[in-house]
Automatic annotation (TrEMBL), chains A, B:
This is Fatty acid--CoA ligase. Coiled coil: none annotated. It comes from Janibacter limosus. SUPFAM superfamilies: Acetyl-CoA synthetase-like. Keywords: Ligase. InterPro entries: AMP-bd_C (IPR025110), AMP-bd_C_sf (IPR045851), AMP-binding_CS (IPR020845), AMP-dep_synth/lig_dom (IPR000873), ANL_N_sf (IPR042099), ATP-dep_AMP-bd_enzyme (IPR050237). Belongs to the ATP-dependent AMP-binding enzyme family.
Amino acid sequence: MKSTMQDDQLTIASLVRHATRVHPDSHVVTATADGSRSITYGELGGRVARLAGGLRSLGITGDDRVATFQWNNQEHLEAYLAIPAMGAVLHTLNIRLFPEQLIYVANHAQDKVVIVDDSLVGLLAAQLPHLETVTHVLVAGPDAAGADLDSLRSSGKEVLLYEDVLAQQEETFDWPEVDERDAAAMCYTSGTTGNPKGVVYSHRSAYLHSLAVCTGNVAGLTFADRVLPIVPMFHANAWGLAYAAIMSGASLCMPDRWLQAEPLVRFIRETRPTLSGAVPTVWNDVLTHLDNNPDVQLDSLQRILCGGSAVPVALMKALRERHGLDMVQAWGMTETSPVASVANPPLGVDGEDEWRYKGTAGRLLCGVEGRIVGDDGAVLPRDGVAVGELEVRGPWVTASYYLSDDPESEAKFDNGWLRTGDVGNLDERGYITLTDRAKDVIKSGGEWISSVDLENALMGHPAVLEAAVVGIPDEKWQERPLANIVVREGASVTAAELREFLSSDFAKWQLPEAFAFIDQVPRTSVGKFDKKVLRQRFREGDLSVEQA
Amino acid sequence: MKSTMQDDQLTIASLVRHATRVHPDSHVVTATADGSRSITYGELGGRVARLAGGLRSLGITGDDRVATFQWNNQEHLEAYLAIPAMGAVLHTLNIRLFPEQLIYVANHAQDKVVIVDDSLVGLLAAQLPHLETVTHVLVAGPDAAGADLDSLRSSGKEVLLYEDVLAQQEETFDWPEVDERDAAAMCYTSGTTGNPKGVVYSHRSAYLHSLAVCTGNVAGLTFADRVLPIVPMFHANAWGLAYAAIMSGASLCMPDRWLQAEPLVRFIRETRPTLSGAVPTVWNDVLTHLDNNPDVQLDSLQRILCGGSAVPVALMKALRERHGLDMVQAWGMTETSPVASVANPPLGVDGEDEWRYKGTAGRLLCGVEGRIVGDDGAVLPRDGVAVGELEVRGPWVTASYYLSDDPESEAKFDNGWLRTGDVGNLDERGYITLTDRAKDVIKSGGEWISSVDLENALMGHPAVLEAAVVGIPDEKWQERPLANIVVREGASVTAAELREFLSSDFAKWQLPEAFAFIDQVPRTSVGKFDKKVLRQRFREGDLSVEQA
């Protein structure tokens, strides 16, 4: 029996129509060196149409790929909307990729046009000659005319000013009808081995993910909200916050390149966002800034989303107790659009129990199914105890990688489920507790030691700014944990003191004996702890290890 | 370019899996004569599986239709979940339909099984022999064994106790994979002319509508919420509140047949819902009850959704000012799943301006597009002034009626848009202001007079309980308004006083001269003012009309 319902497609063009027609007085504010600039969604609609017209005039048709090399700002949002709405495919380039990775992904995706921020021209120029399929570069931003355009032109590509291209177009565009399963956008994951792998989002997956972000269990966005995505739009779609804001009519506050605590806090005080999202490092810096400036309050922020790596409970506690800020941990990955779970504690818990739930990777959202699979491939009980690899599935989870013949790619999927590479357990109420990345697990004497738990506890020590625990070979126990510690400025602590500090929360066999005090934790291009580098440094004798 | 995303279908079975696995400790509470009964979503999951198994054992396969003849209660929720999840089609029968309509819709839909509440056995029994395709009747509810089963059995149908059927089944069911565009449920609209017409919802439309209801701009549901659907589950799916609660993990408070103000208020105080939805009449009664019982507070209710007919601003004001309750108007119809717009005022308005927006039919939701079309078929400007018929489209709007050869059916669609039959305007920010049903418009001297505006104003008079304005023929002006007034118990008012009361808000030519004081406003089977009957009574001289 067929239903009688309309078969309207879930598309980015329909989001553009909605936001610009129903919420024309919402706005997008972008930070500048000394303040901000702003336009309404009504005005944005005209500019998005002009951008689509401009790209069409440069020969972008069908599902051609248009890349962005941009901070979080108004022009990046315009690209987010115009490119998929016109039927083309948005490819967000991570500006922090290593040169050879950047070249690889742009060539693999066959990007034809790159839109680059004026402030990033220098970073792009050196690689541009190697981007084989790129024909045009558009330079965007208020200072585009003053950028070193010759450094781009020497690549032989045609270089245009973004505003010049828009100025020649009409304020309306006849958005083509697209199938909701067609590609809308793509994002490459920074593989730890092999080449980066591309995830190709559909209009449908982006639309459904945005709806989920707008629901009460995630962000509950309304058009009265003001959303500050600090997490980059080139990193897992800024967690869907840009499209979700457009969908709900919420205004957007864009930090552009002003991501240090001081200008960020100033921007928050000036633009008064109600919701923000960023990785723990950013909030750690903001916390330090707030601690040092007791008269500064961020009272507009009703909810802070945090994720990208495990969120230390100590950070959440400090923000709530010292600054009245409510931080909620969420979990996901590029392959899951990314939001898959959010750590709202269940009803009726309080005190340390509440913090225990806030410390999980979150509760599965409706739309995402999860399971824990053991080494032997068997599905383990959802009892909060059995530990294995987390697998997920759902309409905004990827089923494959784009044109990948890498054998590692196929191994990421298990009969329709995505193997997340995260290890942990799932409880009876859908809460995910992650103990490690599969590649980072520490197995000591046949038992697993959770590096995440140890890091979380260590970062609760007042003298510790950051902690990264890795497994190192051990003759007797196969592996033992090595705790790499970055000490907070002006503070001091010894290995013995840290081991003593941990001893109340961990069994003796779980406590690290080995500590290394380091200046900073090495990071990947998306800002995560790079434990591969730490293990390598240990192997090469570059870490000065103390025994506690 | 194909996306790499998974093609998981949006189905009711996935909602069942989510709610019962991730929110097993949420619950559904059902009102009883002297209190309530309750089960958890975990337990609900087992019962839903048993019901599916039971229906399969009775021969329900493929897309067979299973009808419900039930109040809002736990067993009706079980049917809402089990029937679509097993691939069959839920047909909610309106218990208030006139007998010939009930027989028509059950036969037209070819219902095979009817699930009936013990308290409704008497109402069904007389019509049951005429339900030609029905083979089995399941009697549900705590008093099912004591119901007059013989009155049902005399129809020749097989009559079983719902609990007996469930008891013979397993607590798990292997939900079949269905296409999200397949039929999940159906609901007939009570046509004012011709036979009722069926809308067949798909899994996809129900899922997307539920997601929309869970977003911040509608109900912003979280698993901490408790939802009280007073609007019947046989009336436009209880506005999607049942599925939305299941999707978000919110608990449900079901009023069963206890819909009068006194037991309803008691149930609200006992079960402490955070959100509720009902038509204005219900809230009018609750308001009177609260006014008469000043020590009673409904402080758990954070938001009240109201719709089904125009919501008097006076009602919203009284609830807020005298009882601290926040009521929000929503608009929709069976054909739109139903929620299409919600009247949250825009940012930055207050005072009378806020009430003006709260008095509209609401702002279009993302997913629903709207336009105003004039008599000549031309699309009119979205300027808040131009008046015409409202047309809508979107993935939860119907595109046709089920197996309807009624010429009126085809006229309801306009190139992919649904003609709503509602007349009004649309402003630059997507707010819909409705002035009339197309069939109820009053055209006087070439100008439209809004019956809705007059009714709203009249119901703001302290002596007026209800007002229904209809057009009556006039030699000079073609039509003039006749105001039918139900006076509040113990109050009194004259036609002249009411005309004087209106004169500050309306132009002189808009003021009714003719008033009829009546005992009650006739209603349709879904509780709306039946103006057809009022016009007929006037024609037949059954109304005693006074001139003011």
